[in-house]
């Protein structure tokens, strides 16, 4: 067979783990498959949460020209596209597949988030998680009942997040959005810190910074020290949950990462 036609073909025995010892050793540190929106621009931020011996395998959902609205969030969570992307990312045999989009996983409520996870599992993912599902797990483990949220979204999208959290047993005591319809990754740390401090309330047990396209890695610990409470972010909970699924701890700051791996979600 010509070389160019054989690229990507895998021997069935190797694919099922019955090859050489080298293939068996690759299972010692399973990777994380990531299904991301087409406009995701923060690959490096996800890598920063990963231990050195854990690889990330990213694939993107199809491109379409729509501003960041409720309609776009619904389109990003399209089951057919998620199923196809999950299958695409299974080639390197990740131990878990994560849907790395906050709005796309909360926009259709608790049922919509469940359907996304089930879609990835039915497509062959050994384990599956979503950003919004990971957020709820993290909040429950931290005992958070009242939350303040900072988002880059317009009000209609932020409202969907508030509703999703309410249906998950978490009350939103305050919310603030930047009203952006695109280019969210260009928001700098200074603006993120400003909106988080503005939305904090004494009655909030914790704060959440939404959107995987918003940079947050370096500001989590400083914000927790300044505010005296946990600060969770979209990429943080996504990687925390994904790595937890394969028995690994995320690398970085924040009270969330202090939770022992053996503690289960109630």
From TrEMBL:
Designated name of the protein: Arylmalonate decarboxylase
Organism: Pseudonocardia yuanmonensis
């Amino acid at each position: 067979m010509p070389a160019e036609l054989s690229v990507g073909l895998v021997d069935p025995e190797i694919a099922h783990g019955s090859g050489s010892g080298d293939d068996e050793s690759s299972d010692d540190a399973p990777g994380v498959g990531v299904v991301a929106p087409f406009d995701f621009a923060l690959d490096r931020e996800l890598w920063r949460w990963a231990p050195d011996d854990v690889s990330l395998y990213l694939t993107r959902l199809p491109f379409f020209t729509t501003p960041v609205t409720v309609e776009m969030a619904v389109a990003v969570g399209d089951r057919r596209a998620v199923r196809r992307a999950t299958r695409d990312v299974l080639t390197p045999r990740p131990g878990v597949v994560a849907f790395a989009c906050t709005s796309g996983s909360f926009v259709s409520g608790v049922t919509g988030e469940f359907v996304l996870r089930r879609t990835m599992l039915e497509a062959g993912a050994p384990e599956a998680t979503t950003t919004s599902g990971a957020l709820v797990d993290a909040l429950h483990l931290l005992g958070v009942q009242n939350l303040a949220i900072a988002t880059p979204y317009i009000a209609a999208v932020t409202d969907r997040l508030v509703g999703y959290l309410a249906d998950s047993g978490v009350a939103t005591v305050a919310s603030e959005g930047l009203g952006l319809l695109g280019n969210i990754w260009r928001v700098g740390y200074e603006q993120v810190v400003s909106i988080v401090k503005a939305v904090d309330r004494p009655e909030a047990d914790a704060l959440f910074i939404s959107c995987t396209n918003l940079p947050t890695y370096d500001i989590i610990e400083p914000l927790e020290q300044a505010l005296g409470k946990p600060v969770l972010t979209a990429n943080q909970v996504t990687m925390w949950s994904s790595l937890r699924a394969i028995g690994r701890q995320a690398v970085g700051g924040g009270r969330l990462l202090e939770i022992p791996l053996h503690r289960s979600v109630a």
